[in-house]
Amino acid sequence: xxxxxxxxxxxxxxREVKEEAGLTITNPRMHGFISFPMFDxxxxxxxxxYSRRILGxxxxxxxxxxxxxxx
Length: 71
Description:
There is one protein chain. By secondary structure, the protein is an alpha+beta fold. It has one helix and four strands; from the N terminus they run H-E-E-E-E. A two-stranded antiparallel sheet has the order 1-4. The N and C termini lie close together (about 10 Å).
């Protein structure tokens, strides 16, 4: 997903996991990130998080997505 204006990476991952998988995570910790220079001179950055506490059930209709999926 993409950041909302003024959103921290941690807030973004909490929101995106809820929207995409229907799960609630707490206290996400950044595990790392990787950047991909694109041909249009933009840079795609993917953040990797983990969370020890996950609540809810996976939305069975959620599609597996990658940060590399086109818009």
